[in-house]
Amino acid sequence: MAEPAPVALDRNLKSDIAIRLRQVGKVYDNGVKALGPIDLDVRKGEFISLLGPSGCGKSTALRIVAGLTAATSGEVRIAGHAAAAQSIGFVFQEPTLMPWATVHDNVLLPLKLAHVARIEADRRVGDALERVGLAEFAQTYPRELSGGMKMRVSLARALVTDPDVLLMDEPFAALDEITRFKLNNDLLTLWRGLNKTVVFVTHSVFESVFLSQRVIVMTARPGRIAAEIGIDAPERNEDFRTSAEYAAYCRAASIALAHASDAKAQS
Amino acid sequence: MSAVEPSSLRTNHERGALRFVLPVVVLTIGVLAWDLIVRLNQIPPYVLPSPGAVVRTLISDWPILWASLLTTLLTTFEGFVAAAIGGIALALLFSRSKWLEYSLFPYAIILQVTPVIAIAPLLLIYLPQHAAVVVCAWIVAFFPVLANTTLGLKSIDRNLSGLFQLYHASPLQTLRYLKLPAALPYILGGLRIAGGLSLIGAVVAEIAAGSAGAGSGLAYRIAESGYRLNIPRMFAALLLLSLAGIVIYMVLALASHLILRRWHESALGKDS
């Protein structure tokens, strides 16, 4: 059994691996096994989804990668440069904005905490807001924004430090379908333009297939990796969303998900 | 966000006007009735002075009453500031250390539940009079600040805390950019209660001190006028105390509204 280890930055990690999980598990204080052990490699620039039923530990896995929750066993390695604080961006299930601060100040927060010079910081905040299409809302307060717009602010905040890795915890689950589709498309555009490694947690088969290059299907309690489905489709647009190919991938993912749940039920 | 419809705007305006007009009507009726009862029954002023007599005393005794009002307000202010600083600082310490919280919180409660009027004579023995009065005001006023700030600090969004952790925020940064702003609505609520309470604490201590033969605050004037059967002055001093309490409350409510109006639900209109 490996010693519990904190998230480590590793410059010696094989050059094309961004995140490596080895035998990572989480047992809560009350003895409930929440996660794993799981092994997972995420390549640099890859977009993967963790797909599973609610409470399967996929969010826990994400929080362990971010260093927000300590793993009880195994080790997590993240390739990155020296500026550890800036190598990860995290988008929560809720927008998680500071209601007392304007959109600009919310996005500024990570830079302010890292003591980035004001002029440089303001420029980067402007860029990040531009990227998510909210440039003219910089001086607005979060309460004046719609759910989708708040999520965009949250995304801009995660991107403002220019992290190598973007972790997203069911970010669009609470949004209506039209807004979600729009944000899915925008996220893909951003991902192509910025070349980030994205780990996206979702319980939606359709969302995971549409977005990712690889879908990791997880079982519940404890969360383990049940299947991996590579989504080999270069074009991700509205045509893909209505194509037979997309439907076939969704069917495969649904079957894998049902299988994972069944396997659990029998055991 | 959407524009308010004219009809509901009118009712809003009407409601605002009613909320102002109705208490004024009640006040007018009350004062008229009071005056009428005094006149019809020919009640002597040392039993119940007429409203006119109270106002005349207020004007004729103004130099004395004004000086006393300033004394009481100064004590109240000192007690309030001490309560605000003490309550917030203690809450921040408690939020950092469970040991400290578990050790001291019961005593904060004991201070709060022991009637201050019973503590005041003791304090007057051990402390100089002015200090004793300020301490009384502080004892009554600090607990709501402590309790509310503690509640505010415990209500911080867990994910926001996680975010600060993710970006390796220092304890000082977390305090300044997360804890204090997040707890601010609660702190302001506590301060609003503390303002009125510190006036009560100051008055209670002044009365205790007054009966010991010293003091010059408004409460002392009330006690003194009582001994001398100067009932109109008692009423005038009481009126001033009441007004002082109302002004303190309004100032704090206004400050709270101005600070929170940009973002907090409590300070926003229903339609925004």
Total discrete domains of chain A: 1
| Gyration radius of chain B, rounded | 23 Å
Q: What structural class should be given to the helix and strand makeup of chain B? A: mainly alpha
CATH topology of the largest domain in chain B: MetI-like fold
Report how far the terminal alpha carbons of chain B are from each other.
5 Å
Provide the CATH top-level class of the largest domain in chain B.
Mainly Alpha
Question: In sequence order, what are the helices and strands of chain B, one letter per element?
Answer: HHHHHHHHHH
Percent helix among the residues of chain A?
25-40%
**Superfamily at the CATH H level of the largest domain in chain B?**
MetI-like
Task: Label this structure with key terms.
heterodimer, A: 267 residues, alpha/beta, Rossmann fold, 6-stranded mixed beta sheet, 4-stranded mixed beta sheet, 8 helices, 10 strands, disordered N terminus, B: 272 residues, mainly alpha, MetI-like fold, 2 domains, 10 helices, 82% helix, 0% strand
Walk me through the structure.
The complex is a heterodimer of chains A (267) and B (272). Chain A is globular and about 55 Å long. Chain A has eight helices and ten strands. In chain A, strand 2 and strand 3 form a beta hairpin. Chain A is α/β, with parallel strands linked by helices. Chain B has two domains: 1-42; 50-267, MetI-like (MetI-like fold, Orthogonal Bundle). Chain B has ten helices and no strands. Chain B has helices at residues 6-41, 51-60, 62-96, 98-113, 116-126, 129-154, 158-166, 171-211, 218-227, 231-260. The model of chain B is unreliable at 1-5 (pLDDT under 50). Classes of the chains: A alpha/beta (267), B mainly alpha (272). Chains A and B meet through helix 2 of A and helix 7 and helix 8 of B.
